[in-house]
Each structure stands twice: as structure tokens, then as C-alpha cells.
Design goal:
Glyco_hydro_68; metal-binding; levansucrase activity; Tachylectin-2, Chain A; six-stranded mixed β-sheet; globular; calcium; binds beta-D-fructofuranose; 42% strand; mainly beta
Length: 430
């Protein structure tokens, strides 16, 4: 077996990205209605995830659907466009619960303030601890936007529920998982705009080990990368790599848990080379997550139009890669281009932070919707979202994906029995 450490990352090439096109109906989010409902008037709500197993499946707890969301108080940020765009420095993880997966009640903060090592809580994953009745692990990103610190971290607690609702205890302390080391992933001294966040732990069914995906950047000094044929791919005749391509350095990071999952010890991880890099293509691949389906390994990640480099273009949305040879690749872009679901060009910033679950349900939040009749790229007025988008479903068919279903705003699906039937064992770390 090739050691996971010896591997070279798969590349999302410039030639692949040239195949990205908005508005293909199989890879485009539906246009959201101007009168979309708002789940929570008091809070801005954005990145969201359902309670899930470490094997990925969404589950309920005692008949309740549960989700975490990044939220900020509208009263604190301002209940207007400026407040929405300022929300990141006020972000905390809130939780919601629901009987039907559609109508949500806000339950409050998930983490106690004593758990906060830094002012802000950014994205991650809420996971039922395998082998326990009600222990939960909230993997998240501990962030200080003033000092440019961003550390994947975890806090643990317990979940309780009765006929009236859901509540938690614990979540009082935080353990830092790992940091950007400048060797496997860029750190702040190499790249002042470095990304290092959004932990997504899971079990690799092939080896029973616990791994964690996260958003990173290729190590090296920002702007000094040389884009070779390896990153460019098979370019059309006469195509010249665009100016600024060397600023695109996104990486889908991975680490392996070395300390004990069974003991809830998440303090020691082995940093591994990225699974996929986007050198020359894009500077951000956020919230990466994995789905094992029909013997293939799918990785999904969200990215922005604004983070493409070298003159490349693509919509805000979710992108993906597939491997036929297990977790460590090699990966090729889904749908040839990498685009899985992008925003329509008539509403280019309508949704973001898509999360694909193992059943193919895709959940996201509403960002901004241009007012009808205005230029969608530069709208005179737009409606701010700050709430959840309609959940859609995609079919994963080998190395292609297809939009197949549109459901309710913020709807979450859980199939506990199906989840029970797919539980591989965790083997102790070696
Ligand atoms: C995606 C994202 C995440 C980050 C969070 C901060 O929408 O940028 O990468 O954790 O939002 O709000």
C-alpha cells in the first residue's frame, strides 16, 4: 500500500476549470423566490449542518431533527446589508430543533462561553459520538479575525430531549486539534489571507481510521507559486495562463486522528498532504466534506466566483471530485469541470455553503437575491437572506451529478434505519 504521506495531491487544473459553465440545468440551483420565508427574524443564519454520525448520515435524536448554524444577532450587527456583511466577527454556533425537519425552533448557544478560546466560532460539524448514547462532539473553527488566527477545534457535550424540545450540557471547554504548520498547509506568515478551517471528521471505511478534512491553502509564499503544466492541464492551443493565477492556492486538507476516538481524545493528529489542490485556479475551497457512495469516494467543497484566479470564472456554489481508488485518490473533477451546483447567473450570489449528505440532499443558506429588473451582477437593490435556502437533491452517478429534486426551505432529511445499516467499525489509531 502506498503510504498516505508519500502521495502527491490531485489537481483541479486550469483546463478542468475552463469547462465550468453557469446555468446548465443539471448543475444549477433553482432561482429562489423573492418572497422566501425567514426562519429566524432575530438572527442572521448562514453555514448550517445537521446532527450526523461520524460515518456521515444525518440522524434524529429521540424523534427530533437537530442542526447547528453559524448565527449572529441582528440587533448587534445591524439588521441591514451592512450588518449582514459584518456578521463574521459576531459569529457563534446556535442550535435549532424540529419535529418534521422543516419548522425550526432556535434553542440558543451550543457552546458555553467558557469554551471560547477566541472571540468567534466558525464552521465545522456536529457529530454523535459513536458507541455512546448521547455524547456529541462539536468540531468547529476557533477564530480571532483581529489577530488572523483560525484553529480547528472541538468541544464535547451531551444532548437531551423530551416532548417539549432539545437541550445540551457540557460544551464547556475546547481542545485545539491542529494548526497550519507552513509545511503541509500555508500559515499566516506565508499568506496573510490563509484559510485554515471548517473541520469535517469521518471514518474511512477502507481502514477504519478517523480522518478530518478541512479548508487549507498550498504551503508557500502567497503569489510566488509557479504554475507548471501539472497545474495547467491540457490547455487549448494559444491559451495563455492568465495574470494573477499564482494567487490561487486552495487546498483540500486532511489529517488523521492519532489520539483515541473511543476516549474522546481529539488532541493529536497527523498532518497529511492535501487531497486536492487548486493552484492557479482558485484560492478557496471551503467546508470540504466526503461522501462514500457505490464504492466511490466523493469530496465536495464550496467556492466563490471572486476567489477564482488568472481570469478563470465560475459561479458561487458547490464543487466536487471523485476517486475510484478510495480516500487517497487520485481524484478527478466531477462533471469534468468540478462544478456540482452553482448559482444561476440571474441571481449569482443567492446561495452559499452547500453541504451534500450521503443521500444526496444539499442544504445551503440564502445570501443575497437581486431585486427583479436590476443587473444581477451589480444590483441596485437586493434582498438579504441570512436564512436557509430550499434543500435540493442531486443524484451521484459515477463521475457525474444531476439536480433531481427541490424541497422546502431549510428542510433536513434523516433516515435513521438506513444509517443504522451502514456502520463500519472504527479501528484504533496506529
Ligand atoms: C463559508 C465560510 C466558512 C467559515 C464561515 C465563516 O461560508 O466562509 O469557511 O467557517 O463561512 O462565516
Amino acid at each position: 500500500m502506498v503510504s498516505s504521506n508519500a502521495r502527491i495531491p490531485s489537481v483541479w487544473t486550469i483546463a478542468d476549470a475552463l469547462k465550468v459553465h453557469a446555468d446548465d440545468p443539471t448543475t444549477t440551483m433553482p432561482v429562489i423566490a423573492q418572497d422566501f420565508p425567514v426562519i429566524d427574524d432575530a438572527l442572521w443564519q448562514w453555514d448550517t449542518g445537521a446532527l450526523r454520525r461520524i460515518t456521515g448520515e444525518t440522524v434524529t435524536f429521540k424523534g427530533w431533527y437537530v442542526m447547528w448554524s453559524l448565527v449572529a444577532e441582528r440587533a448587534q450587527t445591524g439588521d441591514d446589508a451592512a450588518g449582514w456583511h459584518n456578521r463574521n466577527a459576531f459569529a457563534f454556533i446556535g442550535y435549532y430543533y424540529s419535529r418534521n425537519g422543516i419548522d425550526w425552533t432556535f434553542g440558543g448557544r451550543l457552546l458555553n462561553k467558557s469554551a471560547d478560546l477566541r472571540p468567534d466560532e466558525w464552521s465545522g460539524s456536529l457529530i454523535m459520538r459513536k458507541g455512546s448514547e448521547n455524547v456529541l462532539d462539536m468540531f468547529y473553527t476557533s477564530v480571532n479575525t483581529d489577530t488572523n488566527q483560525s484553529v480547528p477545534s472541538v468541544s464535547s457535550g451531551r444532548i437531551y430531549a423530551d416532548d417539549t424540545g432539545v437541550w445540551f450540557d457540557g460544551f464547556e471547554t475546547t481542545t485545539e486539534m491542529f494548526s497550519a504548520d507552513g509545511l503541509h498547509y500555508a500559515n499566516a506568515s506565508q499568506d496573510p489571507y490563509f484559510d485554515f478551517r471548517d473541520p469535517h471528521p469521518f471514518i474511512n471505511p477502507a481502514d477504519g481510521q478517523v480522518y478530518c478534512l478541512f479548508e487549507g491553502n498550498v504551503p508557500g509564499m502567497r503569489g510566488e507559486f509557479v504554475i507548471t503544466d501539472h497545474e495547467a492541464g491540457r490547455l487549448p492551443p494559444g491559451y495563455n495562463v492568465g495574470e494573477g493565477a499564482q494567487y490561487g492556492a486552495a487546498a483540500i486538507g486532511i489529517a488523521r486522528l492519532v489520539s483515541s476516538y473511543g476516549k474522546g481524545d481529539f488532541s493529536r493528529w497527523e498532518m497529511l498532504p492535501a487531497l486536492v489542490t487548486a493552484l492557479g485556479v482558485n484560492d478557496q475551497t471551503e467546508r470540504p466534506h466526503v461522501v462514500f457512495h457505490n464504492g466511490l469516494t466523493y469530496i465536495f467543497t464550496i467556492s466563490h466566483h471572486s476567489t477564482y484566479t488568472g481570469g478563470l470564472e465560475g459561479p458561487d456554489g458547490v464543487y466536487g471530485f471523485v476517486s475510484r481508488h478510495g480516500l487517497f485518490g487520485p481524484y478527478t473533477p466531477l462533471n469534468s469541470s468540478g462544478l456540482v451546483l452553482g448559482n444561476p447567473s440571474s441571481a449569482p450570489y443567492e446561495t452559499y455553503s452547500h453541504f451534500v449528505d450521503p443521500m444526496g440532499y444539499v442544504q445551503s443558506f440564502i445570501d443575497t437575491l437581486p431585486a427583479p429588473g436590476t443587473d444581477p451582477q451589480n444590483p441596485a437593490t437586493y434582498r438579504i437572506g441570512g436564512t436557509l435556502a430550499p434543500t435540493v437533491r442531486i443524484a451521484l452517478v459515477d463521475d457525474r451529478t444531476f439536480l433531481t429534486e427541490v424541497h422546502d426551505y431549510g428542510q433536513i432529511f434523516a433516515f435513521d434505519e438506513w444509517a443504522d445499516s451502514r456502520q463500519p467499525d472504527i479501528r484504533p489509531a496506529t
